[in-house]
Amino acid sequence: MGIYNFKEIENKWQEYWQDNGIFKAAPSDKPKFYCLEMFPYPSGKIHMGHVRNYTIGDVHSRYKWIQGYNVLHPMGFDAFGQPAENAAIKNKSKPDIWTSKCIESMKSELKKMGFSYDWDREVSTCDADYYKWNQWIFLKMFERGLAYKKASGVNWCPSCQTTLANEEVIDEGCWRCHAKVEQKDLEQWYLKITEYKERLLEDLQQLKDWPKRVVAMQSNWIGKSQGVEIYFRLKDSDKIIPVFTTRVDTIFGATYVVMAPEHPLVKEIIKGKKEEKEVLKFIERCAQESKAVRSKEDVKKEGVFTGCYCINPVNEEVIPLWIADYVLMEYGTGAIMAVPTHDQRDFLFAKEHRLSMRVVIKKLETSNQKPEETQEAYEGDGVQVNSGHFDGLSNQEAKIKIAEWMETKSIGKIQTHWRLRDWLISRQRYWGTPIPIVYCRKCGVVAVAYEDLPVRLPQEAPITGEGGSPLNKVEEFVEVSCPKCKGQARRETDTMATFFDSSWYFLRFASPKCTSNPFDIKEAKYWMQVDQYIGGIEHAILHLLYSRFFTKFFKDLGMVDYDEPFKRLLTQGMVLKDGEVMSKSKGNIVDPDSMIQKYGADSLRLFMLFAAPPETELEWDDRGLEGAFKFLNRVWRVQENLKEKSEERLIRAMHKAIKKITADFEEFKFNTAIASLMEFVNAIYQSQADREVFSNLLIMVSPIAPHFAEELWSLLGNKESIFKAAWPKCDPALIVEETVTVVVQVNGKVRSSIVVDAGISEDELKERSLADESVKKWIKDSPVKKVIVVPGKLVNIVI
RNA sequence: GCCGGGGUGGCGAAACUGGGAAACGCACGGGACUUAAAAUCCCGCGACCGCAAGGUUUUAAGGGUUCAAUUCCCUUCUCCGGCACCA
Q: How confident is the model over A312-332, as pLDDT tens digits?
């Protein structure tokens, strides 16, 4: 074991930072920097994921402090939610008591890591001072029709006994407990996030410093597809069957129309036909198949002819109308035009049922291929053929022209489909924000008055985990007089989804005690946007989409003047053990606290940053942690051997290190920054450092191992915190080398290297290279064809 | 299928804008110190051939562009993530 007493040191400096308010944020003339990590659910204990997430944020914040920024680096707790209720049921405790205990123990663990939070700004979403503003925001949305109640089919988790938002359903399971989600018809509260769909999609372009994959995931989720709704008339009838397509350029190749089995028109149009019986039988069979089975890709496409015909509005062609299970009622209009030549599904179906095909898009390179000969549909771009007066146009061009032409003839309408649905926020649970709505027999649905906020969550409620909303059974909560007519009324007893709480907490940190608004507009204007946000990829859609939505809503209220809350986003990778995610069930959890006991927080921080780049997965390694600890000890020993004056080569090495480390810190390349620190320390061991060199080393170590650096800094006799010191500057004059090593290649293979003056001319370098003994051996008598010179780097002789 | 990101030593990884592949560390091997061990310090460490000097070869596979390719282009394989009979 080493010699440095981390336990004592870490305690001492944590107290020092707290007592002296070193990391307190207050507006000033300095440039501001808002660094935020996703706040945790207070489970009571931190895990390695937290340690990694918060270490990255902490190092960045501390780096910004030393760079002279005015940093806001707050922390709080996403404290409403189900685990508190489950714990209440299990331990017969109360959610509020359980939660505040958890917050206390979690906070003390966070403090042990030495994170530079401004604890004066701590917020907890289960405090009435906080959730009051959830209610306020809800009412503002309600006034604008953005919060509304509707009856609809909803996702229901039978195990959590509550409804879920679409975003909370992962692979047909509950995101929290993985139980299979059921469908139920219920009347619930929704937020109209779809009102913002265009902006949510378009503003993704502003997010240049977000990981591409997060942007892609959000874009997928919003799911915009542009196309045309086309009206097919039923032959010998005035019935219209609308179909939706994104490939209107293939309309002249439609050879049949298909409706989903559940289509409401089906039963009506087949009435009396000789095919009626068979069609009904088919519909029956489809109804029994589960959605999961039906949407499996390799399942054979089945269908029946209805006996009816449709008329293609663009050419009056009469084509058969089919019913098939590969058409889904949930998407588009529940009916499609089938173009077997240019859609693979239609192609397979047409082959199976011997339906006709017609090519309308010709590939540029291939000749007149007959449809019967093709093995698959051609879905790419090409030139229009068999398409009336659109022949010869590129299909991309035709797409626009045909759509416009159809609109003028009223046979089609340009339309956009979205995947995004409104956000269901009602939860049949106790531990959440009460929805501030009252139901009055006379007045109907009535908003609670602003001055009556908060609607407090009653302390006592019968929590059983079943039988609907617990608040429903708390008479003194439910019974209320109507805010409008003062008559008898009942409160809404569902609570809000907890993602509501976290959709705006970053704004609250700007003014956590503000009593007039969710946040003080001036303070928020100073601190926002969040310059750097750091958190897990699991929030790529849920939390990040909701927060973007709320920010846009605040903009519409005139409370903020930007579109996006988070300028830069970093999604840190997971911490693995033996190639698997750490989890209780796998029994492979490494407890941060025990590691702090053994090696100290600084070593843990150092290891977390060194073992992998922040975005990638990190494989836990006990020996790696020990290595980090050894490195700190190695630095510690430097102090015992300080010299009067460093050699020049060490000074040069230092300036190189400053340049590289600074650049790496800027780009979150902590692993290579640490590698450079190690190289720098190795150089010190070759030559011995003076005070100045050692001081600079400490400053550059300080964001990573803050307690350790503070201690050595004070041992050097400094009276102020190292975080008040200035980041070292690289002197460009001192990193210019007098001599350089140039690699000499013959035919691209390294054959020698020569040391030359940095200022050497190209001709001279050429000469010196050709004169080199081992190079000569390789050239022998061969004529030199060409010599390529990369100044200061390399010479390649081509023979 | 579409979209996004990967594949480099025994392991974690590095490589600026096309210019010495494997920095830094872990593990391993050797040496110094020690009665001994630990700790520490120093050295070695992709593979193959060679006593050595040295040579050959190597960034998932194949091809291309180039004086020069982990880096650019094409094809293929494969892994991870999102969306998906989405018309």
A: 999 999 999 999 989 988 888
Distance measured from the CA of protein residue A705 to the C1' of nucleotide B26, in angstroms: 20
Using alpha carbons only, what angle is made at residue A52 by residues A698 and A513, rounded to the nearest 5 degrees? 90
Nearest protein residue to the C1' atom of B67, measured from CA: A798
**Which residue matches tokens 């542009």?**
A226
Beta-carbon contacts of residue A761 (< 8 Å; ≥ 6 apart): none
pLDDT digits (tens, 9 = 90+) for A107-127: 999 999 999 999 999 999 999
- Collapse the DSSP code of A434 into the 3-class scheme (helix H, G, I; strand E, B; otherwise coil) and give the result: strand
| Residue whose tokens read 């879920």 | A164
Looking across all nucleic acid strands, the nucleotide with the smallest C1' to CA distance from residue A626 is B26
Count how many residues are written for chain A: 799
Q: Which of A480, A499, A496, A483 is nearest to A451 (CA)?
A: A483
The spacing between the Cα labelled CA in A741 and the C1' in B23, in angstroms, equals 17
> What ranges in A616-704 are assigned the alpha helix state H?
622-638, 648-666, 670-687, 691-701
Distance CA A614, CA A669 (A): 8
Calpha distance A97→A635 (Å, rounded): 45
| pLDDT classification of A379: cutoffs 50, 70, 90 | confident
Band (A467; pLDDT cuts 50, 70, 90): confident
Question: Which residues pair with residue A757 across a beta bridge?
Answer: A739
Contact A498, A40 (CB under 8 A): no
* DSSP β-ladder status, A225-234 and A383-384: unpaired
What's the pLDDT at A1? 40
Pairwise CA distance, residues A669 & A616, whole Å? 12
Give the 3-state secondary structure of residue A732: helix
Instruction: Considering all nucleic acid strands, name the nucleotide whose C1' atom is nearest to the C-alpha of residue A740.
Output: B20
Per-residue pLDDT, A292? 54
Give the per-residue pLDDT at A190: 97
Residue with tokens 């035009």: A337
- The number of CA neighbours under 13 Å toward the Cβ of A633 is 13
Which nucleotide is closest to A541, CA to C1'?
Answer: B82
Q: Looking only at Cα atoms, what is the longest distance across chain A?
A: 109
Instruction: List the A575 CA – B83 C1' distance (angstroms).
Output: 26
Q: What is the pLDDT of residue A398?
A: 92
Q: What is the pTM of this model?
A: 0.92
* Distance from residue A647's CA to nucleotide B76's C1', rounded to whole Å: 56
**What pLDDT digit, counting tens, does each position of A657-710 carry?**
999 999 999 999 999 999 999 999 999 998 888 999 999 999 999 999 999 999
Write down the pLDDT at residue A367.
47
pLDDT digits (tens, 9 = 90+) for A262-275: 999 998 999 888 99
Q: Which nucleotide is nearest to A212 (CA to C1')?
A: B4
* CA pseudo-torsion sign A299, A301, A303, A308: positive
Please determine, for residue A163, whether its predicted confidence score (pLDDT) is greater than 50: yes
**Cβ–Cβ contacts within 10 Å for residue A592, how many?**
23
Reported as a pLDDT band with limits 50, 70 and 90, residue A581 is confident
Return the HEC string of A109-143.
Answer: HHHHCCCCCCHHHCCECCCHHHHHHHHHHHHHHHH
Instruction: Choose among A431, A424, A425: nearest CA to A469.
Output: A431
Nucleotides of B under 7 A from a protein CB: 3-5, 11-15, 19-21, 23-27, 39-42, 55-57, 67-69, 81-87
**Of all protein residues, which has its CA closest to the C1' atom of B6?**
A616
Nearest to A711 by CA among A12, A3, A2: A12
Return the number of other C-beta atoms located less than 10 Å from residue A685's C-beta.
12
Q: Which residue is nearest to nucleotide B16 (CA to C1')?
A: A660
CA of A535 to C1' of B24 (A): 27
What are the beta bridge partners of residue A650?
none
Task: Name the β-bridge partners of A566.
Answer: A530
In 3D space, the residue among A263, A244, A257 whose CA is nearest the CA of residue A346 turns out to be: A257
